[in-house]
Every structure is written in structure tokens, then in C-alpha cells.
Amino acid sequence: MKPEDHSTATDTGEAAVPFWHDAGKRSIVYQVFALIAVIAISYYLFSNTQANLARQSIATGFGFMGNEASFEIGESLIRYSAADSYARALLVGALNTLKVAFIGIILTTILGCIVGVARLSTNWLISKLAGAFIEVMQNIPILLQLFFWYAIFYESFPSPRQALNPITGVFICNRGLIFAIPEPHRAHAAMGLAFVAVLIGGWFLNRWGYKRQELTGQFLPAGKITLALAVFIPLLVWAVYGAPTAMNIPELRGFNFQGGLTVSPEFSALLIGLVLYTSAFVAEIVRAGIQSINRGQIEAAKAIALRPGQVLHLVILPQALRVIIPPLTSQMLNLTKNSSLAVAIGYADFVAVANTTINQTGQAIEGVALIMVVYLFFSLSTSIFMNWYNKRMALVER
Amino acid sequence: MKLTKILVLVLSLCLMLVTFAHAGKDLDAVRNKGFIQTGVNGAVFGFGMPDAKGVWEGLDVDTARAVAAAIFGDASKVKFTPLSAQQRFTALQSGEIDILTRNATRTLSRETQLGLNFVTVNYYDGQGFLVSKELGVKSAKELDGATVCVLPGTTTEQNAADFFRTHKMAWKPVVIESTAELAKTFFAGRCDVLTSDASQLAGARAISADPKGYVILPEIISKEPLAPAVRHGDDQFRDIVDFSVLAMINAEELGITSKNVDEMLNSKNPVIQRFLGVSPGNGKALGLDEKWAYNIIKQVGNYGEVFERNVGINTTLGIERGLNALWTNGGLMYSPPFK
């Protein structure tokens, strides 16, 4: 709609068209009215809520965030105790949601790609197995799957006192998977830095190798070199620091294992449930992406003697990705949002913590608003990143 | 036009019905109906739950029967509505039920903000801990490092956190929204401890696969006085419900049971004579038949009988009298004089 163009036309015309006959102006009027209506309704809802809350003398605002939370949270990435504030408790919940969403997205992408490719395999058995997996996972509600996996953890594993001990330092029981971790030492931070440095170096090496290949035709196995260095250099750093081998080994003391690292049944059940469910959808997206590529291209690639792996890597995936990424983004968002089902199986995610906060403070509106803002933030961030990646992939196409 | 008229008529009829229900004449309404509509839990064994044949049983159920016995002289003139924790107060406010006997804790905010009146407490409860006997734990103070299944509620999580903090013990909560799912998780061994109101723990234990394998620890970490409630607006009805509960307590104090109540009618004790309506006065004061207390004891029993029948030491719940013993036995059950 271009109102300017239209008005210039009427200026030169003989009689001025009344504005209600001018589609451009009319649409502006409609939009103004719509805007006023939206503002008026929002104002009404807001002031009505405020008035009602005031009438029932319910406190409003986010003042409660600084108060002592005085409830405990089952698992936390940061130090937390009941003496900390509600704000910190909510942060713990948000980090727990991020943890399961982040790991879940990575595993889902990997598993989804494998199953999607397997679905198209020429091997009858593999393709049918992948098909069965997709049908089963897609068609059972995620909540039921979560209950199922959680029940498997608490029903079939022994109590801590009869914990399975497959290898030294690893215990499996109905309290989760508990394993030994190295005692904190300066060497570990240095090893981490070295690893990151190698990865960055590897990226540059890859670029340089690619340019060299374009100029000289000589192939540089940059990936393999980086992988070797990524293992070797951190080990070297570790040796330089005197090769600390002290381990924090879990042991049964009182009711539970103390020490080591525990992966709780709630987290495991949620992760497994989300990954299996979502990866079935991702597999179908991957399959569709691959099938969107003209068979001629694949045949051509085979004709120039590329191995099946190379066909996938060099011909199919770069083109399929641009079809795959947009729906993949929405699956990632689904996974993040579905993680709020954690309340059903007792994983302390953001919704669980916010629910307890609402229960204790009675400030439901603030609590629900926080839940919405946090999920909106997670979803928008994921989608911004994926859109950026999508643009990058789209540019590859000529 | 016709349609509008009909609509207006129907609407005003509805309004009339609504105002009728809210008129404050709850007693009249109950008498006209011929029965008392009672809100109960429906899922807590020993307090309000139908048995295998569909007959309602429990301490809260019997409390409602006592009120029916007082008003109609017939303890069976009562109908039950199972309610969730969210629904219970709304159901009472809206007139869907006449009394609420659904293990509701009496608190200041409920009494003042929800437009209802609690009467005499019919069960003194408190948050406790349920553990497996295998653990060999004798006191909640030995629970350092335990994993605790917590029933989500307004204060359960906080009470537990406060307890562990006060005693400087580490613990891990597992909080699950659905009560049934949480109990399943606990009995499967995911947690060392289940915490909730002690009566609910006893109920959960009673319907578990192995009730004998679990024990409720002696520590009670919160006050939960559970009382029947009526809505504002009919003080006479409130008094009747209140004194129906008190009559059961008073009968136990006087040594009157459902078995000996007929002999007691011949008692020379003026206190008993007044209580059972042999010497009239109490019934008239409440607007009831003079036999009202006799009917309660004859048909429902005294508080001790009701307690022992539903939740007592010889039932699957196996709860000791504790705070719910008579004041003469070190408990809190105490009745004002019936005169």
C-alpha cells in the first residue's frame, strides 16, 4: 500500500477524492483505530488487575525477588542453598532448563541426522528400523514417554546400598548415575584452555588448507590433524603440570553417595525422553531435506567416483541443509518448551522453581510473567542463532 | 421479543435461585433438602474415601454424619462431593456444598479472606516424615544427606527446608506435582523419605504394597489443625456443626459410647442427663431435637470410637492418638461444658 502515490494522483486530478474513498488513507484510519483498541484493552486489563489486586490487598511487584527463598532445590549448576534469594533460586531453575535444552538440542540433532539418513538407507533392515523408531516416537505423547523413562529409572535400578558397580568409580542406582571426577586442580583449567586454543587453530588450519587445495590441488587432512592435536596437547599440558591423578571417588555414606558427580534420574529421564521424541521429528525433516535433492545430482556425484560418505558430505548435505534448517529450528524450540514438562517427573527446571515461588509468595502474575519472559528469551535467542546460521547456509547456494 | 422475555424470565429465576442459596438460611435450606451436602477429600484413606463397595468412610465422613444425626436424627442423611484442594473453598463459597470436612487446615488468612468459618478442630495434624524400616532410622534428626520426596503444597517444601536448615543437615528434594506419581516414586525407592501431613503419610502407607515396611518418624515439624468449615451468614448452622464435633469429644470425656449410651440415659449424673437431653435445654438452644447428642453418639459414636475405627492404632493407618487424645490424657481434645 503506498498512500503517497495515491495522494499525488488525486492532487493532479480534477476533483479531490474524499478520504473515505481513498483506500490508502482508509487503511491508515483503520490501523489507528486498531492501535487505539489494543492500547485501550491493554490499559483496561492492566488497571483492572491492579485494582483487583489492591482490593484483595495482594502485594504486587518484583520486591519478593530479594527475599529469602527458604526452599531447597534438588540439583543446581551453581552454589545454592535455602538461605539464598528467590532471584537466585529462579536463576538455578533457568540454568537447569538451559542445561537440559542445550544438551538435548545437540543430542537430538545428532540422533535425528543419523536416523534420518538411516531411513533412506538402501539396507532394508536399517531403513525399516529407522521407520519404526520414527513412527513409535512421534506417535506417543511426550508426557507418557517421560513417565515411562522415569519409571524405568526408579523401578528397575537398585537402591544405593545395592548399587551396580560396573567399573571402579562408577555406580548406577535409583539415585542416578554417580561417577568419579578428578579432584579440582589448576591443570584442568589449563587443559581446557589448550583444548579451545587447538580448536581455534584447527579452524584457521582448515581455512588455510582449503585455500592451498584450491591453488595447488593438494589435500590437507585438517580435521584429522586438529583431532590429533586436540587430544595430544591437553595431555601434554597435563603432564607439564605434574600429571595430577587424584580422583574424587564417590562413596556410600549414610543414605546416599557422597562425592563424585551425580546425574539424577529426573535429568536423565527428561533428557532421554526429549531427545528420542524430538529426534523422530528431526529425522523426518532430514529425510525430507535429502529427498528434496534431485536424484540426478546424486547419480552425477557417484558417476565421478565419490564415495557414499563424500556424496553425503560434499553434495547432499550442503544443499539439503537449507531445506532442513528452518523446520529444525522450530523442533529445537519445541524441545526447549517441552522441557517444562519436567514438573511432572520432578526435575527442578525453571517452571518447577517458579511454581514453588508462586506457591510461597502468592505472586502468581509476576511468576507467570517471569516464566513467559524466560521462555520467550530462550526461544528468541535460539531462533536468532538459527536464522543467522540459515542465512550463512543460504549464501553457500549459488 | 418473545425470546427476550423468556430469557429475562430464565435469568431472573436463576438469580433468584442463586440469592436463595446465599440467603444465609443454610439450616433451612438443608432441612428443606432433607440431607447435607458435604465436601470431602475422596482420596485420603482414613479421612474421606469410599470403600470397595462405594460406601464412604473416614474421620471426616463420620464428622459429617454426626452433623446429619444432630439435625435429622439420622446419620445417613448426608451426600458427599469429592473435592480437590483447589476446588474445596470455592465449592463452599458458591453453595455447592453445605459443609466442608476435607482435612483443611485452619489459618488466619483462610478464616478472614475466604468468607468461611472453621469450627472445632476434628484432627490435629502436622507435617511428618515417612521412611522405610530398612533404613533403621529412629528420628528425623538422623536424616542427614537423605533424598526427600516432597508433596508440593503451599508450605510443605518450606517447612521441610526450615527443618533441615535448623538441624544443619544436608538433603535433596524431589518435588513432583502429582500426589499419586510422587507416592509411586517414593515407594519404588527413589527417595529415602516422603514428607507431608502425617495423616496423609499414614494414608499413603496404608494403600501401598507393603504398609508394614514403613514407619512415620516421631518429629512433627508444622501445625496443621484440620477443622470442618461452613460459610459465613448462618450462625445457628455454624453452632450446630461446631457442637456436633464437640458432642463427640464430650461424650468420650464422659465415658459415653455408642454401646452404653442407652444405659447412660438412666444415669443420675446431671452433667450426663443434660448432655443426652434427659434434662432438656441444650436441644432447644441449638434449635434441634433434645435427642440430638444422643443420636450422634448412638449412630456415629464418640470421638475416640470414630478415631479408632477410621485411623486408630488397630486400623491399617495405625495412627496413635497423640495430640488427638483427650486433654485428660495429654492431648488437645477438649470440650466446653454442655450447659
Automatic annotation (TrEMBL), chain A:
It comes from the Bacteria. The chain crosses the membrane at residues 28-46, 89-117, 129-151, 163-181, 187-205, 225-247, 267-290, 368-389. It is found in: Cell inner membrane; Cell membrane. GO terms for cellular component: ATP-binding cassette (ABC) transporter complex. GO terms for biological process: amino acid transport. Residues 94-386 form the ABC transmembrane type-1 domain. It is a multi-pass membrane protein. The keyword RNA-binding does not apply. Keywords: Amino-acid transport, Cell membrane, Membrane, Transmembrane, Transmembrane helix, Transport. GO terms for molecular function: transmembrane transporter activity. The keyword Membrane applies. InterPro entries: AA_ABC_transptr_permease_3TM (IPR010065), ArtM/GltK/GlnP/TcyL/YhdX-like (IPR043429), MetI-like (IPR000515), MetI-like_sf (IPR035906). NCBIfam families: HEQRo_perm_3TM. Belongs to the binding-protein-dependent transport system permease family. HisMQ subfamily. This is General L-amino acid transport system permease protein. It comes from Desulfuromusa kysingii.
From TrEMBL, chain B:
Residues 1-23 form the signal peptide. One of its GO terms (biological process) is amino acid transport. Residues 35-264 form the Solute-binding protein family 3/N-terminal domain. SUPFAM superfamilies: Periplasmic binding protein-like II (SSF53850). Keywords: Signal, Transport. Pfam families: SBP_bac_3. The keyword Signal applies. CDD domains: PBP2_BztA (cd13692). Belongs to the bacterial solute-binding protein 3 family. This is General L-amino acid transport system substrate-binding protein.
